[in-house]
Amino acid sequence: MANLIKYAYIIRSKNAGPFLITLDIFFKSRDIYERIKRLKIFSIEELAKLFNVSKDDIKGVYFIDNINTVKITLKRSVPSGSVYDKDIYGAQQHNPLLKIEIPEDL
């Protein structure tokens, strides 16, 4: 097994308004992207487990074929800039994605 980092050249998160976070995974090639897309590791069920949230908090998983990217939108646990917000820009919310293991024999 290999970490997702082996296959992606950018893994990031950022605000998508005050109530949502967007996570982007840009893959190194079309071939890698297509193979990972077929693995179904970015299902709402798997992402809810990974981020320890309800399935309803995963607002969407989008495969953007022309740029070999997966975009995930999820509900923020607290609004951006609120008293309990620990990451106002949403820039550190992608960390659970770094735990994803991919078969080496893609």
Can you walk through the features of this model?
By secondary structure, the protein is an alpha+beta fold. The chain has one domain. The chain is 17% helix and 32% strand. The chain contains two helices and six strands; from the N terminus they run βββααβββ. Strands 2-3-5-4 form a four-stranded antiparallel beta sheet. A two-stranded antiparallel sheet has the order 1-6. A hairpin with a 4-residue loop joins strand 4 and strand 5 (69-75). The model has no long low-confidence stretch (mean pLDDT 94).
Give the helices and strands, then pairings.
Layout (H helix, E strand, L loop, with lengths): L1 E2 L4 E8 L4 E8 L2 H10 L4 H8 L6 E7 L4 E7 L25 E2 L4
Antiparallel strand pairs: 1-6, 2-3, 3-5, 4-5
Descriptors:
106 residues; alpha+beta; elongated; single chain; 4-stranded antiparallel β-sheet
Helical proportion? Answer: 10-25%
Percent range for β-strand residues: 25-35%
Question: How many E-type strands?
Answer: 6
SSE topology string: EEEHHEEE
Radius of gyration: 14 Å
- Kindly report the oligomeric state of this protein: single chain
Mean pLDDT: 94
Largest sheet: 4 strands, antiparallel
The number of helical segments is: 2
Major sheet: arrangement of strands: 2-3-5-4
